[in-house]
Each structure stands twice: as structure tokens, then as C-alpha cells.
Amino acid sequence: MSYPEVRPRRLRRTAALRRLIEETRVAPADLVLPMFVKEGLTEPRPIASLPGVVQHTRESLRKAAAEAVEAGVGGLMLFGVPAKRDEVGSGGVDPAGILNAAIRDVIAEVGDSTVVMSDLCLDEFTSHGHCGVLAADGSVANDATLVAYGEMAIAQATAGVHVVGPSGMMDGQVGVVRRALDAAGFSDVSILAYAAKYASAFYGPFRDAVESALVGDRRTYQQDPPNLREALREVALDVAEGADIVMVKPALPYLDVLAAVRSAVDVPVAAYQVSGEYAMVEAAAANGWLDRRRVVLETLTAIRRAGAQVILTYWAVDAARLLR
Ligand code: PBG
Predict the structure, then answer these.
(1) What's the CATH number where 298 sits?
(2) Does the structure show a pLDDT above 90 at 22?
(3) pTM confidence score
(4) What angle do CA 253, 254, 255 make, to 5 degrees?
């Protein structure tokens, strides 16, 4: 061999050397915990396809939110499951609706000690399970849906949320939500835009978690998995419309999209490690086929390495404890 010899293994010899040259670190503050609250529940209810995740009662949600803050997570993302649904998803707009009530509860519990976020979408509230209202021909009506999103944003902001997360993939949703918030005096409420959200089969367990009524799919509004340039166009539109943070979803199967988005924008980039990503690892670990702890940390590290500053993950509290 010629000298000086390049020997990369020199820097891998001890744990201390490896730690010194680590290029990517995951911290509890990078992680956001998605949480479900169901109207009328008296006991937290386990979700079979998401072992370790529950539908909360209003009371257990408050307690779990406080525990997550204690573990050091960076934020909470709230999803509401109403007792009743209707064609237009009025439970999402109703100030007394489960999600808006839960926002008030959680804010009363944790205040500004973490970042409280809420899903801004109609799918949990509509009887047909779509993310918007339907036109006469059964298609999802973009602009009529935007009107509802604007009202929902104001309801969530009034309840005290720090960040709203429009996730319905309607055209123009970020701009409409920004204008609605500003006009109602909520110019300090931030928008986490689900900017590149794919029509993914990895959302299966989430639909159990919210008892989704959806028949069919969301392919006319969520993105087609083969497309990357389209994600950059969606992200550019959302940034121009006023998104404060942009998100790619799912995470692990879309690391190339995440990396491209990271290099295209200067706003913070988030990734959503979705229910199916979680369920796959949990199922394999329960069979003894994977080392759960190592796989969880490896996936989070990979998502950070690809460019996500913030990660929404059902492991947020577990991982925060592992990382401390
Ligand atoms: C829509 C929404 C969904 C998820 C987050 N927000 C469901 C969907 O688009 O069908 C999925 C999250 C997950 O799978 O963990 N409100």
C-alpha cells in the first residue's frame, strides 16, 4: 500500500471516536408525538394495529401530554375522533368539537412548555371519510373545502394551538389558512404544511386509530408515489402561500424526497414517520425478528440524515427516553 494510507477504520475503533465524528444526532426536542383523543371515551382504548398507542379520553390525553413534556419531546400533534360524523365535517369547526376541546385541555396542561399542534383536516369528521366536502358528482370539492379549513383554523387558534397542520392536500390550503388566521387576529399562529403528502398504503393503522369511514382512496388529492418533482412544486407553492414549516410524509420510504426538499427550501423541514412504518417495526420486534431499540434509533437517524429537522413519530416518548 502507498502512504499516507487512508484507513477510515481508524476513526471507528472506539465508541468515543465514533461519537466524536458523528455527523447526525437525534435529540428528544426534534421529536413530535402524534396523539389521538376520542369523544365520549371513559377509558383509554388500545389500537390493535398500533401496539403501545391508544385513543385517549380527554383526561388521559392531558396526563399523557404532561408525561411527553417530562420526557422532553419537542411537540405534540393532536388528532380528534368525534362521536358523530356528518357530510360536511361540522365537528371540526365546532368550538365544542372534540379536537378543539382537546386543544384547550392540552394547552391548559402544558402551556408553552412544548409546541402544541393540531391536524387541520376534515377526514376524521366527515361521514364519508374524505379530507374535504363532496361535490354533487361525489368528487372532493377543492374550494368549498378551503372555506371549511379557514373556519377550522380559526377554531383551533381560538382554542389556543401554537401550530396548525393542514393535511388535506387541497390546492391553495396554506394560503387560505394563513389569510383566515391573519384576518381573525391570529397572525402569530404557525402553519406546519403537509406539503408533500403521498397517497400511501402506510397510513393503514392510522385509519384504525381514527376509525376512518373512508371507502376508496385519496388519489385525487394526495400525491402519486412515483413523483418527486411534483413534491418540489407542492413545497414551493406552500412556502409561497406562507408555510412556516414544510413536511414530507411518509418518511422512510421517501428519504429521496426529503433530501430534495431540504435542499430546495430554507424553512424548517419535517417528516412524518407514519403509522405503517411504526407498525412494521413493532410487529417484527414482537416476533423477535428485529432489535426494536436499535431499529427505532436507526430509522430516526436516517430521517434526520436525509434532511428532517423535525420528526413526527409514535415513538417520540420512547425514543426521547432512550436518547437521554
Ligand atoms: C389526515 C391524516 C392522515 C394521517 C395524518 N393525517 C391520514 C390520511 O391521509 O389518510 C396519517 C398518519 C399516519 O398514518 O400515521 N387527517
Answers:
(1) 3.20.20.70
(2) yes
(3) 0.97
(4) 105
